[in-house]
Specification:
5 helices; mainly alpha
């Protein structure tokens, strides 16, 4: 298992989130996905790495990025080949 992060949430905010239907687990899922999207957009993570952090398949993560207006074809040099290999591996296993 990797590094654990902790985000303190004030009680009033927690109540607001719970009333909006966010359980602790739902917040964790959404936080991981949001972090993955931001780090991908900033070119800190590759598409494959961001997909893994988000806990989603490539088939789920690409439309998720699109829903946020984040392009998936904006590649710095060298990343395209790596991500294409990852996509090919997922297609073969999935």
């Amino acid at each position: 298992m990797g590094t654990q992060l902790e985000v303190p949430i004030l009680e009033g905010l927690r109540t607001t989130l719970e009333l909006a239907g966010y359980s602790t687990e739902a917040l964790l899922v959404e936080a991981r996905r949001a972090l993955a999207a931001v780090l991908y957009k900033r070119h800190i993570l590759t598409l494959a790495q961001a997909t893994e952090l988000a806990g989603m398949s490539m088939h789920e993560f690409i439309p998720f990025l699109a829903s946020l207006g984040i392009a998936t074809l904006d590649y710095p040099a060298g990343e395209l080949e790596h991500d294409l290999r990852s996509i090919e591996e997922q297609w073969q296993t999935g």
